[in-house]
Structures are given as structure tokens and as C-alpha cells.
Specification:
With about 350 residues, the chain is of the alpha+beta class. The chain is built from 9 helices and 14 strands.
């Protein structure tokens, strides 16, 4: 065989090998495309939550490692934040309303059954997420609010207690001294940007809708997603709401599809930030539906955030999304950075991850 013939022979062999490899890749892609799980690797069990609330993540992860259910893991994590008063925005002793009272919101969703329970504007009961679980398991309702939610909790064996602390009352007194600034009133008299109430409606001074002031110390929610060893997904939230809210206000956290949403067939999402804006768009439901239609978790979260920012470019908020394989992503707007905490089967410890947020172009 001549040198030239040998060269062409080697070229043909190499081309044949490359074509074989490409054919194998094409066959695998075609096979994975037609299979239910698309050959994706499961990174479960796992737990993920908003903000750097790592004690909550650790507790949820411990529950999952003891073969606990996703629901139990979510409730356990939320309970830790309620007890530790995470950033003053979860649990007792934080975010007083205009009357100086602290009230609590919470939501628990079981993605395997689509059963859920929630409490809103609940007074004088510390364990909001546990009460939400009782609503889910012991009633045919989804959401109980106000004094009646408190009454229900007492009937279920919870103890009534004052949710205010010296810190929360001092915060409220400083707010009153500062002419009740900031507040959530608009189109009223006297001018709510200068004076305290009581107020009366004054539509002659009508102003256009705007976002509330939110920063990393007034983000008001822990949202947790857990996937257990059986592949069941649950999500939940807990918060004491926005500081100096108008009494009776319920935020996005206990609203299914807004604060959290979960479906075993597609995944789950949780949201945090300006609840009055967020609940107008049901961002958690939006993200789960986006994953249903094939979007990756990060893209699904970004779609939910972008939809809100198109209408309220100055709003602040974040969404975390997780699909059924334990793959996750997050998106945020208005903050500088958004931290979230995670533990999964890949790394048997809790990590804090950060993403950079989009901002208004104006």
C-alpha cells in the first residue's frame, strides 16, 4: 500500500469513527426526547429556600435525611425561622402594623395531592406554618384569616400569646414619631406622605400605582421547596408581612400560586419581595406553568420576574423554581443581589448561592 493510499485509509477510518459517534449521540438524543424523564439525572432529595436562612435549610435537610416527608421538611424549616425571627421578617416580634401589632401569614402546599392550607393576618399564635398544616389536614378549606384563624389554632391545641416584643414596639413608636413614614396609603387626606391618619378618601389627588419600598431587610418571606426520597414535592412560606402595613392587610405569602406553588408532575416555585405587587401576577404559579411547557427552572423564574417588571419596573422581588429532577434556578429584580440556600444529594451540606438582579432602566 502506498503512502498516499495509507493516508486516505486513515482519513476514512477517522471519518467513520466520527460519524459513528455522531450517530450514537443522535440516537441517544432521540431516545431521551421520547422518554418521560429525557434522561435527566435526579438531584434529589433536596431543599432550597429564599435568603441566607441556613438554619432553616439545615433543619429541613435533616428531616429529609431521616426519611421525612417533603411536607414535614417544609414545616420544620419554616418553624425554625419563626422561632429565630429570621431578619425580623418572619415570626413574632417583627413588622408591626399601623396599630403596633404583629400578625402572621403562612402557606403549605402538598404537590402530590394539590391539597394546601394557609393562614393570613393571624394574631397571637407563634407557629404560623404549623397552623397552616392543620388547615390543610383538618379542614376542607384552604385559607383562614384574622381572629378566626387564631380561634381555629387554639381549638387545634396552640397557645395564645402576645406576638409583640420590645423591639417591635420601639420600631412602631419611632414610626409614629416620624409622622408615620413610610406607609401604604394613597389618594387620601391628609397627605399620607407628610402626616399620620386617620385618613379619608380624596380621589382629587389621584396618583398612579407604584411599587412599595422593599429592601433586603423588608423582604418579608421565607419560602421553602423540598423534594423527599419518594420524589414528592412540597412548598411553603412564612412571614410577618410588611412593616407598618394597614391593619387587615394580607400579603402574597399565604396566597397559593403567589407565595408558593407545587405540583409533583412539573415542579415548584416560591416568591419573596413586594407582596402587594407579586400577588397580582401569581409568579410561583407562572414559573411552574413555564416548566410545564419545557422551560428550565432559571428561565421559568426569569419569565415570572420579567412579567412583573414590565408593569412595575421599580418593584423588588425574587422567584426560585425547581423541577421534578431537583434542578433549580432563581431570578430577581430590584435588589442588588439575591441569596438563597440549598442542600441536595450532590452536596451533603448547606450552601448559599447568589444571583445578580435586574434593575429598572429608568
Amino acid at each position: 500500500m502506498s503512502l498516499k493510499s495509507c493516508f486516505y485509509y486513515l482519513i476514512n477510518v477517522v471519518i467513520g469513527i466520527i460519524l459513528s459517534i455522531l450517530a450514537m449521540i443522535a440516537i441517544r438524543i432521540a431516545y431521551c426526547y421520547t422518554t418521560k424523564n429525557n434522561c435527566l439525572i435526579y438531584n434529589t432529595p433536596m431543599v432550597i429556600n429564599t435568603w441566607a436562612f441556613t438554619d432553616a435549610t439545615t433543619k429541613s435537610w435533616e428531616v429529609l435525611n431521616m426519611t421525612g416527608s417533603a411536607i414535614d421538611a417544609v414545616v420544620a424549616g419554616c418553624t425554625v425561622c419563626e422561632q429565630e425571627q429570621c431578619d425580623g421578617t418572619v415570626g413574632y416580634g417583627g413588622s408591626p402594623d399601623e396599630n403596633g401589632e404583629t400578625t402572621l401569614d403562612a402557606l403549605i402546599i402538598d404537590g402530590s395531592t394539590m391539597n394546601m392550607g394557609a393562614v393570613g393576618h393571624m394574631k397571637r399564635i407563634k407557629s404560623a406554618s404549623k397552623v397552616a398544616k392543620f388547615v390543610m389536614e383538618n379542614t376542607k378549606h384552604t385559607l383562614l384569616v384574622g381572629d378566626e384563624a387564631t380561634k381555629f389554632a387554639i381549638e387545634m391545641g396552640f397557645k395564645e400569646t402576645n406576638l409583640s416584643t420590645n423591639d417591635s414596639m420601639n420600631l412602631w413608636k419611632q414610626w409614629k414619631t416620624n409622622n408615620c413614614q413610610p406607609n401604604f396609603w394613597t389618594n387620601v387626606s391628609p397627605d399620607p406622605k407628610k402626616y399620620c391618619g386617620p385618613y379619608k378618601s380624596n380621589l382629587n389627588t389621584q396618583s398612579k400605582p407604584e411599587s412599595n419600598h422593599m429592601d433586603t431587610k423588608n423582604h418579608d418571606t421565607i419560602g421553602i421547596i423540598a423534594i423527599d426520597q419518594e420524589g414528592n414535592i412540597a412548598a411553603g412560606t412564612s412571614t410577618n408581612g410588611a412593616k407598618f402595613k394597614i391593619p387587615g392587610r394580607v400579603g402574597d405569602s399565604p396566597i397559593p400560586g403567589s407565595g408558593a406553588y407545587a405540583m409533583n408532575t412539573f415542579g415548584a416555585a416560591v416568591a419573596t419581595g413586594d407582596g402587594d405587587i407579586l400577588m397580582r401576577f401569581l409568579p410561583s404559579f407562572h414559573a411552574v406553568q413555564a416548566m410545564k411547557h419545557g422551560h428550565l427552572p432559571k428561565d421559568a423564574a426569569q419569565l415570572a420576574i420579567d412579567t412583573i417588571a414590565n408593569y412595575y419596573p421599580d418593584f423588588s422581588g425574587a422567584v426560585i423554581a425547581v423541577n421534578i429532577y431537583g434542578h433549580y434556578g432563581a431570578a430577581c429584580h430590584g435588589f442588588d443581589k439575591f441569596p438563597y440556600s440549598i442542600a441536595n444529594s450532590e452536596q451533603n451540606n448547606v450552601s448559599i448561592l447568589y444571583i445578580t438582579c435586574t434593575k429598572s432602566k429608568s
